[in-house]
Amino acid sequence: QSVLTQPPSVSGAPGQRVTISCTGSSSNIGAGYDVHWYQQLPGTAPKLLIYGNSNRPSGVPDRFSGSKSGTSASLAITGLQAEDEADYYCQSSDSSLTGYVFGTGTKVTVL
Amino acid sequence: EVQLVESGGGLVQPGGSLRLSCAASGFTFSSYWMIWVRQAPGKGLEWVANIKQDGSEKYYVDSVKGRFTISRDNAKNSLYLQMNSLRAEDTAVYYCARARSGYNSAWYSKIFDYWGQGTLVTVSS
Q1: A contact test, residue of B38, B96, B100, B112 with most A CBs within 10 A
Q2: Long-range contacts at B46-51 (CB < 8 A, ≥ 24 apart)
């Protein structure tokens, strides 16, 4: 029951910048809850990429950045690299569920 | 090193039951909320259930309420998911994850910072 909407796919050439949007509502992102982002490489478990809207865990390259405004958030990848090919998911909390919601997921392709 | 290892998945008939386990190591298990997340084949991530450090608070996605039960044994550093009345739509890889607190300790301020490798549950006749 994804209630956070992401574009199904984005693509870019190596070195380019791509952005992924994550659109929610007043019961999740718009309610002030933090947004987190996860990267899922093919055949592996998700990995925390961005937490608290814009913070990077130790070891995550600074090519990845996050932001949030109103009922939306976005993830930017600058200097796109082949190893960035993966699925990306945003995630927030939702007061109507008393639980968590994930985005629909975005596949990033490096051309 | 934080490690989460799920087990217990497999093939089960509709209406059947299965109990998933998640063995935790490398951190103080009793200090963290824990969560189960699932991913149907070729689909996105879906939160299933989460549990407070002492088990006093549990939350479930509507689709599993009354059928699934999340529990934990802090003495054994283990998280569980008892799944009853399974349906075809429960077919998925089930991940356990550690839920670290964000800006406060409330249920809504959690960051899923470590994940297990997942265990596949297939519900089919």
Answers
A1: B112
A2: B46/A1, B46/A2, B46/A102, B46/B92, B47/A99, B47/A100, B47/A101, B47/A102, B48/B81, B48/B94, B49/B81, B50/A99, B50/A100, B50/B99, B50/B107, B50/B110, B51/B79
